[in-house]
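Researcher: Here's my situation. A collaborator sent me these components and asked whether they could plausibly form a single complex. I don't have experimental data yet, so a predicted model of the whole assembly would be a useful starting point for our discussion.
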Amino acid sequence: MFGSKLFTRSGLILLLAITVYAALISGHALRISRNEEKKVIAGLDHELLKAARSIPHLIAPDFFDRAVQPGTISEAEDRANIKQLTRIADDLDLSYLYTLVYTNGNVYITSSSASKEERQKQTEVRYFTPYPETAEYVRKAVESGAPVFNTYTDRWGTFRHVYIPLRNKQGLPYILAADHDIGRISGLLKQQTGETVFVSLLFILAGVPFLLAYRLVSKYNARRLKALNLQLTEDIKIRRQAETELVKSEEKFRLLIENSHDIIYTMSTDGILDYVSPAWTVLLGHPADQIEGRPFQPFIHPDDLPACMVWFSKVIKTGQRQAGIEYRVKHIDGTWRWHTSSAVPFTGKDGHVTGYYGIATDITERRNREKELELAKQRLEMTQFALDHASAEALWIDSDGLFVYANINACEKLGYTREELIGLSISEIDPNLPAGTWSAYWENRRKTVSKVFESCHKTKDGRIFPVEIYSNLIRFGDKEYTCTFSHDITERKQMQTALENRIVALTRPLDQSANITVEELFDLAEFQRIQDEFSAATGVTSVISNLDGTDITTSSNSSTLCGQIIRNTEKGCANCNRSNAALRQVVDPKGPITHRCLSAGLWDGCVNIMIGDRHIADWMIGQVRDETHTEEQALQYAREIGADEQTYLEAFRKLPCMSGEHFKQIAQTLFTLANQLSVSAYQNIQQARFIAERQQAEEKLLRLSTAINQTAEAVVVTDAQGIIQYVNPAFEFITGYLQEETAGKSSNLLKSGRHDEAFHRNLWQTITAGQTWTGQLINKRKNGILYIEKASISPVCNPNGAIVNYVAVKRDITNELNKEEQFRQSEKMQAVGQLAGGIAHDFNNILQAILGFSELLLDRLKAETPEYNNVSEIKKAAARAADLTRQLLAFSRKQYSEKKRFNINTVIRDTDVLLHLLLGDKIICVFDLAQNLNPIDADPGQMTQIIMNLAINARDAMPQSGRLTISTENIRLNVRDTAVIPGSDPGEFVCLALTDTGCGMSQEVKDHLFEPFFTTKEPGKGTGLGLSVIYGIVKQHKGWINVYSEEGSGTTVKVYFPAAGSDPARPAGEPPVSGERNGRILLVEDDSDMCNLVARILQDAGYSTFAAATYTEALQTFEGEKSRFDLLFSDIVLPDRNGIELADEIRKKTPALPVLLYSGYRDQRERWSNLESKGYHFLQKPFTITTLLAAVYDALEKASK
Amino acid sequence: MSHILIIDDDLSIQRLFKQFLEGAGYSISSASDGREGMLLMKQKKPDLIITDIMMPEMDGLEVVRNINNTCPGLPVIAISGGMRGMPINFLPHAKKFGACRTFEKPVSLAALLKAVRELLGTSAEKTDSGYLPSPGSGFSK
């Protein structure tokens, strides 16, 4: 009992202990699991936060400003967003990555990744899907303004999410969100808890003591936790790396793809273009988002589609890379573009091909080129065929005169085979080019490209025929050939000769037509035909003969009796001749002559063929028996002349028989006919002559009009009222008006308004009185610019003496006058300069005395006394005089200028402050300086002087306010430009221009602008020397000044300086040798002390010197320095030869080089009298430094003029 | 007392400078051309030389060169009124050859005195002469 009681009690205690033990162990295990869960979730949250924060980098930057209401995001953009977010969500192993907008208390999804199931269903439209389940969380996040994390369950599953609240530009809240499916993690944790409890129970059952079990469970759990955490950390690390690299490589490939010139695309196995790069839009015009999701077939040319389909299935079927397909794709404008494509297939997880990456390149240009080449080849073949079969003889001849090609016709015509002909010399077939003459001919031939001429060709068997040759000079490869086409012109030549003869005859003046013949007047064959037909119709015999009785035509219908019987007898023949002569003796232009012949008594007639009143031939008819003429009478005549009676009688019977009346009628008919023929021949002559004369007149006219068209003088023809009827090209060139613009206009068109009424009245009075007016006219061109012309206007009268036209011949003399004016101006300036230089020394000494002594005096006198004031005035006046002298000198003399190579822009910028002080606030000063302005070689100080001086003038022209623009530019002038710009030279220049908006200047002011002492300012405000000093400086720099100004419309002064390196004497790009500011001098002196001294002085004065001791050495130095000298300065007495010979030799090479020779011989002029005639300067030894420098200066200065 | 040698072929200018500089407390010798000036220089050993440029016999440039060669450090003032008949300015040459100061004629006496004083390193030889250069007393160019 006790035992059982005890057992019961101890059993109860044991049971209790075990229960407590189990509970404690399990509780411990659960606590550990809870801790573990918290740690895992914390790691996850961190990842979610990062993923959500990356969203703005994946979608358009302005997306959140636009994604605020339905319809503002296109489906294409939505799909693109889905694609991007899905890719990242997949990579980061997230369930969803999305964005929300919170508007009017509602939540909408604005973009989101898609789950796998959704992707398969292809229901990927997300934009503005309501998402009310999350409204609570969103509100919370927006209110807190910080990311919030939640674990929640909705229709898509159980998720841990983060919501990051942000606001767009309009202040509307939106959310970046990332979800992670934590169903799996919860499962794992649950499993872990189960395991722990299970392990605890095992310990209990195994009777492991509590403390040990506690420690073991703790240890077990710690190990598990550590492993889990390690796994998590590792996952996070890998994920992070993947993420960074993904972003990097994404960016790289995106840039590559988006900037590729080729189209990069992905194609699905069902032929859908999943993606196309922006190059599609560039190459084919369609926006890329319109292409994505569409099948490729409709874009392919129907002819190329079958091949493309075969290729496409090959890619999909083989899973191998394919290339080389060429096909046409439709451009948005409807044209077809040639593309070639290559494809790399990609596979899904199951290893099956799911599509391919493709690269398509536009090869349209290549295809076009190939097509052109093909066409060109065809054309070439056609050309060759055409040439081979051309009807002309085609021959190619090389520069040695040998045939290199002959076509079929050439071979046939010349009787050679092609093999024989090629390699044969031209002299074999062209008698005009015998052997040995070719090279001279060729040299000449090369001067013209094509030529048409006549020559002869000789066949293989020696026959020569005339040819017309079209010859072309052709360069083929690096050789020259002539390519000739020849035609046989034998027939044409014959016809031409006959025609030429007739034309000569016909056009011969009438008084020279004494010897004109029937042959020349008529077509003889035609004439014969008329004669034959006339005889046949009338039965009479007929022949045309010259006046001397020789026959022109062949006798028609000639009888046996006359021709063979009577003329066979001596007496009969004589009678016949006598009879004919008698007949011809009578000349009757009014009608036919008939008679019974003095031989057999037959009827004979004669009609005179007259040309005008000239009798040139006779048309004879006859051998007709009168009806009263008996056989008896015939027999009697037969006996009389001794002919056989029987034969005579038979022939007599065959003669046509008619009455005298009838015969006369026939003769009359003939007369009419012949008369008509004569008249038409005569008219022919007259017509031909008329044509010839007209032709001559036309040629004369053509020559005249060519002359008028080509003359440089303007020619204007007007009618009597001064309306222009004709102007020549020179007129067009000078005035700018075209012929068609002037036709019908009054000659007042050019009136400038510079001449008064009286001037025009006088002009018109002169010409209307029938006289020629000559004089100068100031006229206006079409562009408004005035010009001066020397004109001669003459009236043209008709035969009745009435004026029908006026002809004006005019020459533009504006440039001539300008040049004259410039020359006059510069002469004047020079004169003033010389005058100033001449008196300056003495004048300055005088002024020094006046000024100095008045200063001394002033010091002795008490201030404010009249004497003191008077001396003060003397001093002031002297000071003014000194100032004037100084300016005059500055204008006239070549100032000692420190020339440097620099950019004038720098100087202009440096004057900025000074200009502001000078111009004040009312005048705005603007710089418009050319970039890359060429440098100039000049004295920067003098440039400043020019700018300041011109700026002062501009200021004075704008007393109220205005604007001064200082600009620079590079200018290149050719010879033609210089004709238009006064004072200019051709070459490269830098132009400095100052433009003001001031009052401008009148023509008169402009004319005198640079003259010393000319000023428009009030007395005391300017000396009038400022601009003349500028003139001097600019001239010294070999530049010039142009002034453009009109009263009331501002002034532009343009100053031109030669660009550095553009000096023709110095090759471009070569900078001036240092120290040669003033010139390079070749110094020849054999005394070394003297030589050193002179060289030192000259160097100190800014010249560079090159010393030589002898004639020979001097020439070597001259050559060595490439003749680049400005002066030869030599002693006349040299050890080897003399200085004059040296100068002569050097002048042969550089004829303009100034020469200064010196000598100690006093009688130099007698000894070397020809120095002056050669233009050599002379300096007498010994010389002072000033005389030496003056002489050098003088020689250089004179040369520069 | 510093000694100044004046070389000028124009006697009135010689007199002017002599009178003025003596008034300013200097002792003066004068010469009418370069050669005479060089002789006087050897005798008088002046502290400063004022020379004209265009002179007969020996011109001012040669004077400057000579002094520069024989007595380097002896200050020279060159004054020129230009050359007869030829527009050349020799003053830059004079400066090259060693002239300390150059003046174009006419020079204001005040400016000349200022230069003399600076070159001789003295503020004034004689304060009661009243030849103190005052601003504006020279005429501006």
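Model: Some features of this prediction you could bring to your collaborator: The longest strand of chain B covers residues 3-7. The first helix of chain B runs from residue 11 to 23.
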